[in-house]
Specification:
By secondary structure, this protein is α/β, with parallel strands linked by helices. The chain has helices at residues 2-13, 75-78, 86-94, 108-119, 242-249, 271-278, 292-297, and strands at 135-137, 158-160, 180-182, 204-206, 231-233, 257-259, 284-285, 288-289. Residues 39-49 have a biased composition (Low complexity).
Amino acid sequence: SISAAFREHLRHLRLQDFPCGRGSWVGGRGGHGHGGSAGLSPPLLSPSLQNKSRFDARTSPRRGRPGLGADPAGQEEAVPPGEESPEVLMELLSDRHSPWALPPDCSPQDQRLREMAVLTPELVRGSKIFQVFRSLRIIGKGVEEVDEGLLQLRQLEELILSANQISRITSANLPRTLKVLELCCNVVADLQDLCAQPPPELQHLGLGYNRLRGPSQDKYLTADFWPNLVSLDLSFNSFTDLLGLVSQLSSLQKLRVLVLQGNPLALIPTYRGFLVDSLPKLSILDDVHIGPDERHQFHGLARQPELIRSEARVVVSIGEIQGVPDPSVRQQLEVGSEAPVITYSYRVTYEF
């Protein structure tokens, strides 16, 4: 489930281990080591007691705000003996040679969470951490279920769940604050559950590389479900009915970015021109900007639906086949021979 993947993500960040949180490295071999390296003693780190006095929530005259210690002029005096200053701890997080540095491909939010765990650890402890997340990226973790645990992230605006194994999404389990929902490279085949109670403020919906088929799914792509949608990615699915899909998409008055490439309907010769003329508010189609010249070129095409053919012709040329007898060459038999005549025939099938 997504809750399990989220908990694993938090464990990976180690927000309560040194140098984050209130962790310590006592005598160079404390119990809060990172990544199983508790026996190592980094050169920038001195033995310390538990780093907790700097994070006292009570504000004293010497401390302008909780979690950040004293003002710069009195910083060294405010840090008790035996404890590292916030500057030293932050250096351990940012130095790429540090054993506590995050990998280069981590998200900016992961880095900010680690920094918060140093400067204001009280904000990332217990249930408070759920209020911190504005963006959540769970990519390629084998997630199959979007469970109700996601509702704890009450401030979540961006949810990226690409390259998982999600086949259905229960909209009741999605935070109502969502503005971006990316489900690229999953196995979604039906939008009914997602559209039961969709997030009302959603601006981007990414459904590329899934198993959606038209026209049964076209009816879920309207303003009745997505009144604020600005960007829609339906690429590399199995939509075939261009006229039916356009009739539904035309209700999305705020739609500016649309991706349909990779669907069978994109093979229609007048595909792009028909979309450009049918959706006059569209700015980008299949990652290509729509300019004034293109709009003028295709003006009026939307009023000629007969140009959208419902069939296609495919010409296949076979250059060479090896290992089978040539059926066009008949056997040359002697006159009066009673030997049976052997003929060969082959059938070649193509599946689209």
